[in-house]
Amino acid sequence: MTLPADSLSHDSIAVTLTKEKVAARFPSALAHLSNLVRIPGIAWDAFDAQNLERSAEAVAGLFRETGVFEMVEIRRAMADGKMGAPAVVARRAARNGRPQILLYAHHDVQPPGDASVWKTPEFEPTLIDGRIFGRGAADDKAGIVTHLTAVQTLVDMVGEDFEIGLSVFIEGEEEAGSPSFRNFLEENRDVLEADVIVVADSANWTTTIPALTTTLRGLVSQVIEVQTLDHAVHSGMFGGAVPDAMTATIKLLASLHDEVGDVAVEGLHSTKASDLDFTEEQLRIDSGLLDGVSMIGRGSILDRIWTKPSITVIGIDAMSVAMSSNTLLPSVNAKISMRIAPGQEPEDALALLRAHLEKHTPFGAKLSYGEVEMGKPFEAKADGWAKQLANASLSAAFGNESVDIGIGGSIPFIADLLEVFPSAQILVTGVEDADSRAHSPNESVHVDTLRGAMVAESLFLIKGNELRVN
């Protein structure tokens, strides 16, 4: 459904008033964010699960305090015989043909990593030069407080008797791969079904230029084992005639890229990225690429990191240097992580990867396959009233035109959202920027960008409350 452009534009007076309402609530929003950052809720088995419970309770309490939802509950789903992490759900049904909007974020965070690299305490929010540092400050507790503030601002602007429908889903295991996500969707369809799903777990183009994420690469990872011997033997006695597994593995992994660093697996799909200005200098700053180290691959930089396949060897199990001896290793394990372009099916990409590996395994070494992980890529629909309104809302909030961007990483659960709710429009938004360093030490959120995201989502809900789409 496409609505007339004038029905989706924002009156300048309403924009100014919305900014004032968000500004009034912003100190309490930052306090809520700080309190959430202090809870180290990590959904990995090695960490205390009680912190996830504390985190879920804190989030549920915030949405209950708004007083606008018919229900706010903490729920879980089973996956592979194991109970999933606690998630917060809430719902208020739409009335009089207004749209139902689902607001998604996640309250779990990545492990803190090496404490010696952090410039601030990992779970103590610290404001430095306009950024709040702390694990989860950007990914994704900022998404939670953005949703919360937008709901509160909607009430401030139109009153408690608003007609737009609101659902909330704050997941508790996104950083652990969302193992129970699909089952959770199926079991909670009545709460989560919506016309529009706002996924607040991405980034903007810059701290001042807002964006919608319209493409995401998919993921295919494959663990392999390369074996050449049935036991280790002396490298001096047999080296030079007998191939060791490490040499065979290195040659095999090297075959995955051509001479300039493009992926050499035949048959993989590629597409074109948005035509935005992104320089090699900016790439070096954002990635920390060392002086003298060249880029790899062909095509525009954004094509290479958003819409072309990439392959990284992210792990090798072999003898450590500290424990090494003069022996030929009989076997080596490696984990290959492949990002696939929008439009590529993960199953097809896995078959192409395996065909390449089997073709290029040297010396007749024995190749076997281990654990596989797959996630579908995402490409947003080009039209639809929700995207039109989101672009207008972001542009009004930031004072700069919103752009469409891609993300080289993956959010595999979006494919589940599309399959369970095929008629829903999905908007991927966020508060991160290139310096947010999500998943890395010194994660942070830019305060002004966070405020802009809150204004934009508030405007989206306020205007949505005026639309009849059903």
Structure description:
The protein is α+β, with helices and mostly antiparallel strands and 470 residues long. The protein folds into two domains: 5-216 and 377-464, Aminopeptidase (3-Layer(aba) Sandwich), CATH 3.40.630; 219-271 and 308-375, 2-Layer Sandwich (Alpha-Beta Plaits). It contains 13 helices and 20 strands. The protein has helices spanning 12-37, 50-65, 141-158, 181-187, 189-192, 235-238, 245-254, 280-287, 301-307, 346-360, 385-398, 413-420, 447-464; strands spanning 71-75, 78-79, 82-83, 87-92, 100-106, 126-128, 131-133, 165-171, 196-203, 211-216, 218-227, 233-234, 310-317, 327-328, 331-340, 366-375, 378-379, 403-407, 425-432, 444-446. Strands 1-4-8-5-9-19 form a six-stranded mixed β-sheet, sandwiched between helices. It has a four-stranded antiparallel β-sheet with strand order 13-15-11-16. Strands 6-7-20 form a three-stranded antiparallel β-sheet. A hairpin with a 2-residue loop joins strand 2 and strand 3. Helix 1 packs antiparallel against helix 3 (141-158). It is elongated. The mean pLDDT is 95.
Based on the coordinates given, report the CATH architecture of the largest domain. 3-Layer(aba) Sandwich
Oligomer: single chain
Number of strands: 20
Strands in their spatial order, largest beta sheet: 1-4-8-5-9-19
* Strand residue percentage: 15-25%
| Continuous helix count | 13
How is the main sheet built? Answer: 6 strands, mixed
CATH class of the largest domain: Alpha Beta
Query: Based on CA inertia axes, which overall geometry fits?
Result: elongated
The CATH superfamily of the largest domain is identified as Zn peptidases
State the helical fraction: 25-40%
Q: First CA to last CA: what distance?
A: 10 Å
The overall average pLDDT, rounded, is: 95
Query: Which secondary-structure class do the elements indicate?
Result: alpha+beta
How many distinct domains?
2
CATH topology of the largest domain: Aminopeptidase
Contiguous low-pLDDT stretches (5 residues minimum) are: none
Rg:
24 Å
